[in-house]
């Protein structure tokens, strides 16, 4: 711990809260710039909604949500319309203040008119969401799952999921919401921080019982009841990858602003806490993503009134120690060096005709290491060769990794969803001034001109009007007043507008994909032309 800062560079910085805890120019930081902002309830809902507009079926794991106060009229109108079309629909909604956590300020309502509009709603924006009325119950109790996910790198995208997580239980038997039980938090909200105050909370040393259990213990139970646990895991993996795909475009904008390409800067990784609710039919639903999940492995116990003691919590310990240990193993800079050497040996072996018991290497820095390693490799049998770098590494003797790579492992299945990422790449290209996150009117005009998007039916004057209209609306939502200009979400909206205009009859995701292809084609042609001119 360096409460007053540290002068000498480290290879890994473990920050408590955010990327900006220190000024860092090298190594790796355990937080991404902008992550805390990205996983706030409103920002997450917006990012997922953009993906729902493009791919409604793929993103049906997030409850229908409205952003308050600006979408209050829309919320009222849509609920009325749905009730009119299906009079038997008796929904419940959950109102969650933006930026809140641990169940703070959350309440359930049966009708839009029950929203507490008085006083704080203007000053405290919120998300109102369809309440999942039929969750899966275990021992008659509602529970949610906390899964730990390591975002190891943004570019290229690398995601790992921990094999085990936590299940956090309510402390009152569940009943579907009625006007009478709406306010019973111990029945409806699974937050540990709330339920710990219930007299029914059970601290248990056993991972299979009590109010906090391992997720694997729930899976065992489900499996013994004949549930398709493999399918459940694959749905959870898919939910995690899709959610991160929804977050990456804006994260990349933050990243280039804080760590401009070409300047010395650190790389980042981050452990995220995914809160997931299982429906009765075992469909996983995303509740929220936590940028600073608690890594505590003890809980407080009241010995006598007012006297507390920290006691170990075996369930937390079992899950969380493995997550931290494996995160460090995966980001270990020494491991990267070992891997580089290994790859170097492989590439030398394939390039050079090995007649003698040594390799000729022209990279003087690694020559000694390589020849040494090579001798060992050539001496060893094939099995030992495979093991090289692990048997001798400090990892020997550690348990196998609890963090499993899911991306790029399953990239092929999900890459078609990464359209907004490509829109963000266009946005970043035209941002111009390094360190900014908003596009000025000139940048937007240059984007339209370079991508050859204006023509006789879409003049540069209409381009300016589109820019002003959309930018003004987004800025009036009061998200970020620090900079003026067009934010990424506003640019995405403008891009969707242009795509709809140009490719009229296609579904939205095809319109957007066609426009991205069109823009990328013209920009590549422009780059080539500039390169040729430069050479000339
Ligand atoms: P917080 O950040 O305050 O914990 P969450 O979004 O995690 O807010 O919500 C708190 C709790 O409320 C969740 O743990 C879950 O038990 C319950 N909850 C949240 N959203 C829903 C929903 N759409 N349907 C059913 N229960 C929900």
Which helices and strands, and how do they pair?
Blueprint: E1 12-13, E2 28-29, H1 35-38, H2 41-54, E3 65-68, H3 72-85, E4 93-97, E5 107-109, E6 126-130, E7 137-138, E8 141-153, E9 158-162, E10 166-169, H4 185-188, H5 192-195, E11 212-214, H6 215-224, H7 229-258, E12 267-268, E13 270-278, E14 284-290, E15 298-304, E16 307-312, H8 314-331, H9 333-351, H10 367-379, H11 382-387, E17 403-407, H12 411-414, H13 419-431, H14 441-450, H15 460-476, H16 488-502, H17 508-535
Parallel strand pairs: 1-2, 2-12
Antiparallel strand pairs: 3-6, 4-5, 4-6, 7-8, 8-9, 8-10, 8-13, 9-17, 10-11, 13-14, 15-16
Helix pairs in contact: 7-13, 9-10, 13-14, 13-16, 13-17, 14-15, 15-16, 16-17
The chain binds adenosine-5'-diphosphate (ADP).
The site of adenosine-5'-diphosphate (ADP) has 20 residues, from strand 4, strand 13 and strand 14.
Fold and architecture overview:
- There is one protein chain.
- The chain has 536 residues and is of the alpha+beta class.
- It contains 17 helices and 17 strands.
- The chain has helices at 35-38, 41-54, 72-85, 185-188, 192-195, 215-224, 229-258, 314-331, 333-351, 367-379, 382-387, 411-414, 419-431, 441-450, 460-476, 488-502, 508-535, and strands at 12-13, 28-29, 65-68, 93-97, 107-109, 126-130, 137-138, 141-153, 158-162, 166-169, 212-214, 267-268, 270-278, 284-290, 298-304, 307-312, 403-407.
- The strands form four sheets. Strands 7, 8, 9, 10, 11, 13, 14 and 17 form an eight-stranded antiparallel sheet that branches. A four-stranded antiparallel sheet has the order 3-6-4-5, sandwiched between helices. It has a three-stranded parallel sheet with strand order 1-2-12, with no helix packed on it.
- The chain is globular, with a radius of gyration of 26 Å.
- It starts with 11 loop residues before the first strand and ends with a helix.
- The relative contact order is 0.10.
- Adenosine-5'-diphosphate is lined by residues 63, 94, 96, 100-104, 106, 129, 131-132, 144, 189-191, 275, 277, 287-288.
